[in-house]
């Protein structure tokens, strides 16, 4: 099985048009275009009944004490956790492409609706937790919201775009399901998977 993410080469930087946050020399970060990239896939195995698309960052600090704090840095050796940026499930087997901007086109304060989207069913991404303390932004964030790593992180962040061919029409997920729910529901149902990884940073020393 093969996956292609238009504009993103494996191991190369992700263009800013796909980012939630972009570098700003004065304020460290500004909101970005936040468009989902075009994702397409091919060579799904026989018996495929649906697809799931997941994008996640495994390099997110496990503690947020020093994140985006003036005069501090997030050390590279700090333990890291997964942060889910995009969850789409129950994509019909007849679909093999999600166009650019189809699931996200701009930062939407308080988030997009979960549940049925333009393609498939949207799960809830981790901006829901990350922005929970921000009165202007707090809400339920579903579907795609792109990279916005801490601007003071010593570590370059990696973003895995994955497509999974599944042997079921639906994973049976409803409500505000998250990335861990998707992974658990997929167990025993994955026929094939493919991945492309891009990188991103807001740290001027790493750019």
Automatic annotation (TrEMBL):
This is YbhB/YbcL family Raf kinase inhibitor-like protein. InterPro entries: PEBP (IPR008914), PEBP-like_sf (IPR036610), YbhB_YbcL/LppC-like (IPR005247). It comes from Marinobacter profundi. The lineage of its organism: Bacteria, Pseudomonadati, Pseudomonadota, Gammaproteobacteria, Pseudomonadales. CDD domains: PEBP_bact_arch (cd00865). It comes from the Bacteria.
């Amino acid at each position: 099985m093969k996956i292609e993410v238009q504009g993103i080469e494996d191991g190369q930087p992700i263009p800013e048009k796909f980012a939630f946050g972009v570098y700003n020399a004065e304020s460290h970060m500004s909101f970005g275009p936040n468009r989902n990239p075009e994702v397409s896939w091919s060579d799904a195995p026989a018996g495929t009944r649906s697809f799931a698309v997941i994008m996640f960052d495994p390099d997110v600090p496990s503690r947020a004490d020093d994140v985006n704090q003036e005069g501090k840095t997030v050390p590279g050796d700090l333990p890291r956790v997964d942060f889910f940026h995009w969850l789409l499930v129950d994509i019909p087997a007849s679909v093999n492409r999600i166009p650019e901007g189809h699931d996200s086109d701009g930062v939407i304060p308080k988030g997009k609706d979960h549940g049925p989207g333009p393609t498939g069913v949207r799960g809830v991404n981790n901006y829901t937790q990350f922005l929970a303390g921000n009165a202007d932004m707090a809400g339920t964030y579903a579907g795609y919201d792109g990279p916005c790593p801490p601007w003071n992180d010593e570590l370059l962040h990696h973003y895995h775009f994955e497509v999974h061919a599944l042997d079921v029409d639906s994973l049976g997920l409803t409500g505000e399901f998250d990335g861990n729910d998707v992974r658990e529901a997929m167990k025993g149902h994955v026929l094939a998977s493919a991945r492309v990884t891009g990188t991103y940073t807001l740290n001027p020393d790493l750019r």
